[in-house]
Design goal:
alpha/beta; Rossmann fold; 4-stranded mixed β-sheet; 8 helices; binds adenosine-5'-diphosphate; binds guanosine-5'-monophosphate
Amino acid sequence: MERQGLLYVISAPSGAGKTTLCHALIDLLPELGHSISFTTRPIRVGEVDGVDYHFVSPVTFQQMIDDKAFVEWAEVHGNYYGTAVKTLTDACDSGRDILLDIDFQGAVQLKERGVEAVFIFIAPPSFSELESRLRGRNTDSAEVVACRIKNAHGEMQEAKWYDYVIINDDLDVALMELKSVICAERCRSRHMFPIVAQSLNIITSK
Ligand code: ADP
Ligand code: 5GP
């Protein structure tokens, strides 16, 4: 029996370690797909177009909004980011589980549209640690870092409506917790029973 792919939406204040955790998770569970978003943000050193993001101009992004090509999109820290409808439909069709690394505004849009997903929030252990990680990453200017830290206070308020909150203090512990959430969600009876019933040839009452 074909298993339907699950959608895992992961949000965090910038610098909390979401990218690090998602990459490590995919190393552990290589069958997981990772949605590649569209963004108008300038490409960073080390990033690859079409791998980290699809880097597009504001004009192209606006055209995609007009064409209703996004399932969600948002302005985050002064740049635009969006998930293409096609990315999700392709993932669904393939039956693959997929990670969506998006901010809370995009997550709210998916929740309000009734998209079936597991919502996971990654929190930093403290704001001072968040600041030192953002500075230590050395990818953004001082103004960009200041803007991201300022926004982090509001973003943390959103954690309360997510299904899971993981504190990324010790990376190994956070990774183990994230992997446990993914594995537990895969084992939910509503996902597994139809497969078990078919493979064991159980006659279901309903
Ligand atoms: P995000 O994707 O949430 O913006 P990153 O994954 O880029 O964050 O992580 C920000 C910085 O913090 C990176 O330099 C990363 O190596 C570091 N980092 C991530 N997780 C931890 C952790 N648990 N402890 C210490 N540093 C971490
Ligand atoms: P960064 O510029 O550091 O890569 O990402 C900044 C923020 O944009 C992160 O919180 C990230 O999760 C978010 N983001 C990345 N892609 C998307 C997307 O497709 N939609 C939304 N809403 N946010 C995104």
